[in-house]
Write a structure and sequence with these properties.
Layout lengths: L1 H10 L8 E2 L5 E2 L10 E3 L5 E2 L11 H7 L14 E4 L8 E2 L24 H14 L3 E6 L9 H14 L4 E6 L8 H6 L2 E7 L5 H4 L5 E4 L2 E4 H21 L3 E8 L8 H10 L4 E6 L9 H5 L6 H10 L6 E2 L10 E2 L11 H6 L6 H27 L11 E5 L16 E7 L3 E9 L4 E2 L2 E2 L4 H7 L5 E3 L5 H9 L3 E3 L7 H17 L22
Parallel strand pairs: 5-7, 7-8, 8-9, 9-12, 12-13, 13-14, 16-21, 21-22
Antiparallel strand pairs: 1-3, 2-18, 3-4, 5-15, 6-10, 10-11, 16-17, 17-18, 19-20
Helix pairs in contact: 1-7, 3-4
The structure holds FE(8)-S(7) cluster (CLF) and iron/sulfur cluster.
Iron/sulfur cluster (SF4) binds next to strand 6.
């Protein structure tokens, strides 16, 4: 084991200065956008997953890689889709938050994978989806085990796709144990995006997360296992950075285990050139059958998650729009169309991979995206508020996309959360909820869980809302706001906040701090 590590170390020659981090997702008013959070400095220029960032913020080479990747660009995720193919069932480590009967927790919600695929079946499925969903730009292999624990299946799938669908970006997710051994292979197939799940850099923390690993034909336990894993993860990350592959680090936030430690993880991965850091909440329920589920290890609250993410600002750039999707997910982030593409259905489809048609469609998407950006900045420039105070609130927004407040409260399956100051709006995440409106009627039993999910917000901006949920929200101290229906989110939020502060100043309402909110546990069911 040691000699393998040493050999790999000698092969690695990272030039870490090539990839430097940037700042986060913040939209400033009056047409003066400023990046400060979810972005990175990639190559010689800036790169970001921030809503306001574009080709001017990064090198052309990095922009080319991220511009239509829904996970690496927060802004792109409103327009472009990804899909996963479940070709990698095996795993070589055990995480206490994983049960093999469920999707890999690295990249997935806990929920069984509907169909495990052979590479041939996977390629067929990708071609079928790409024909039906021309905005599907990224193919990821994220389990249901570890992509590099089944390397033949993983790379055979990538090999075929590189030949048959050359415009699709290839993406891989791994626990990192075998990563140093496969960096050449990753580069050979032009896999430009690699996610490594790194929950610790200290074996004392690691032994509470990983009971064992299987490495070099031997099973290692406890602290020794965690030590090998962290060394391999760091080495793999350095090797990818040296080869110019964009890396994203996923970390599962486990309260009482690694919550205080993730700041150190953030600094460590930043110094090794990670492009993005995605800090995700632990999902842990007894019915998932995981060690953590069975021992009662809880996941973080919304504010606990935000506190750790905020503490990591300024380190590696943060991804805040992850939906913890399934290992066989298909569609835009936050939606899942995998049911439309079972193997039986694909057999019936008339599949034609038309590269020109896909390109033409994506050009239209780009034009629409640019028009939306221009309109948004024009709308923001009309917001005038020069007040300078420290008041800061969160608002929840119901949106179907396009950057607008355009979803009915009862139809929302998730709310965007924005932090508002007098001069800026910052996207800080999503909160999933159960549908309030069921079959045309409001489902009052769902309201408490929806209120819990956005309980740290002062207002919820919606296109429309009925009288019953309106009263319940008001009673909970959350202001329902439908006055800005179909406005751009940032403009609506800033305008509402100016009005809110004016009412506070006049004594019409009293400003109070809000409490915490709950992160929804359990499998996501699309509307
Ligand atoms: Fe898939 Fe992951 Fe690639 Fe994205 S997902 S392999 S980087 S294409 Fe994305 Fe899903 Fe979050 Fe993963 S939203 S779970 S970060
Ligand atoms: Fe489960 Fe993924 Fe961890 Fe393997 S790496 S044990 S599949 S969560």
């Amino acid at each position: 084991m040691e000699s393998a590590l040493e050999t790999a170390s000698q092969n690695a020659s990272p030039s870490l200065s090539r990839l430097k981090p940037l700042t986060g997702i913040k939209i400033e008013v009056a047409g003066q956008p400023e990046s400060s959070g979810c972005g990175t400095t990639g190559g010689e220029g800036k790169a970001s997953c921030g809503t306001s960032d574009g080709p001017d913020d990064m090198s052309p080479e990095v922009w080319e890689k991220v511009k239509n990747h829904p996970c690496y660009s927060e802004e792109a995720h409103h327009h472009y889709a990804r899909m996963h193919v479940a070709v990698a069932p095996a795993c070589n480590i055990q995480c206490n938050y994983c049960n093999r009967k469920y999707d890999c927790s690295n990249e997935s919600r806990p929920g069984v994978v509907s169909q495990k695929l052979t590479p041939d079946q996977a390629v067929k499925k990708v071609i079928a989806v790409a024909s039906e969903i021309p905005q599907m730009t990224v193919l990821g292999i994220a389990g249901p085990g570890d992509a590099l624990a089944s390397p033949q299946k993983t790379f055979e799938t990538f090999r075929q796709l590189q030949e048959q669908a050359p415009d699709i970006k290839l993406c891989l997710s791994t626990n990192g144990l075998m990563l140093p051994d496969f960096v050449d292979e990753i580069c050979k197939y032009n896999i430009d995006h690699v996610t490594i799940t790194i929950n610790m850099i200290d074996a004392e923390v690691g032994e509470k997360i990983y009971p064992w690993i299987f490495y070099n034909h031997k099973r290692y336990y406890g602290r020794e296992a965690a030590q090998i894993l962290t060394e391999r993860q760091m080495l793999g990350l350095e090797m990818l950075t040296a080869r110019g592959v964009l890396t994203k680090i996923n970390s599962v936030l486990i309260p009482g285990v690694n919550d205080k430690h993730l700041y150190e993880v953030n600094r460590a991965v930043k110094s090794r050139g990670a492009f993005l850091h995605n800090i995700m909440p632990l999902i842990s329920e007894a019915e998932h059958g995981t060690v953590y589920g069975l021992t009662g290890q809880r996941g973080p609250s919304a504010q606990e998650l935000k506190e750790v993410q905020d503490a990591c600002m300024g380190g590696a750039n943060l991804m805040r729009h992850c939906r913890q999707c399934r290992a066989d997910a298909v569609g835009l982030l936050g939606e899942d169309r995998s049911d439309e593409f079972t193997l039986d259905q694909i057999e019936q489809m008339d599949v034609v991979y038309d590269l020109e048609k896909r390109r033409a469609y994506q050009e239209n998407v780009e034009a629409e995206r640019q028009a939306q950006q221009n309109a948004k900045h024009a709308a923001l420039a009309t917001v005038t508020d020069s007040a300078e105070d420290n008041m800061k609130v969160l608002v929840a927004v119901a949106t179907t996309g396009g950057g607008k407040v355009n979803e009915h409260f009862g139809h929302a399956t998730e709310f965007q959360i924005h932090e508002i100051t007098t001069t800026s709006t910052t996207f800080v995440g999503h909160r999933r909820v159960d549908l309030y409106c069921q079959g045309g009627f409001g489902e009052d039993e769902q309201l408490p869980s929806i209120v819990n999910a956005i309980n740290d917000c002062h207002a919820v901006l919606v296109a429309k809302i009925g009288a019953c949920p309106r009263d319940e929200l008001l009673a909970a101290g959350i202001e329902p706001v439908d006055a800005y229906a179909h406005e751009f989110i940032e403009k609506a939020a800033l305008t509402w906040f100016a009005d809110y502060r004016a009412r506070v100043a006049k004594g019409e309402i009293i400003h109070k701090e809000r409490g915490d909110a709950a992160i929804r546990q359990g499998a996501f069911m699309a509307a």
